[in-house]
Amino acid sequence: MKHIYIILIALFLGLQGFAQQNRRSPSLAAGLQISEPKGQFAQNFSGTPVGFAGTFTGPINRSFFEMGVGFAWNSMGAQDEDVDVVVGQDVNGNDIYDEGTMRIRSNNYRYQAVARFKPFKGPFQIYGDLFGGVERFTTSTDIEINSSGYTEVIDDRTVHYDFGITWGWAAGVRVRVARSLFVEGRFEKLEGGTATYVDQDSIEINYENNTLNYTTSESRTDKFTYQIGIALEF
Question: What's this model's pTM, rounded to 2 decimal places?
Fold first, then answer.
């Protein structure tokens, strides 16, 4: 029994010494991201959301663990359509029209708390994350008019939005390219709760009043994400 205690104490002191030599700094990472819908989400949404994402984490004392926050934005669809816009009336009370562009944007935003295990510091690093948070699905429109040499954006509307929960895990690799700069690759497996979002194939413009007609889909929102970017240590 005494030998076991000695081994445990030696192991504890060794880990403490390794942790002191492996002191880490807060880090900020950002990169381009591609999402791959899975399960029900893939059955109801045929596109490939793309965008960017970032995380900020800081070490917990001298342990191998870090805590932080994450954010992601993925575009789920975008289209521009020419429309006629009423810009005033003439002296006889008739509407005056100008040409404009209706911009239709569907987006997915994610806000997450992150718990990270990162055992090593050096030119080559690996880490694993657990995270959870909320995500938001929105579809919005606005109209851009080019008039008299300047651009004006009018009639900005959010036509649909919904919230859901999201959680999952991630694995990442970092390779140092400068003193505090790393290239990072990251994979995420996200489990998503049930949410509603606009069916991109159903979108039609009502040109009489420049509004949208559309239908929505409702499903879980599971997905894989693949990310490449950079990370800075402070």
Answer: 0.86
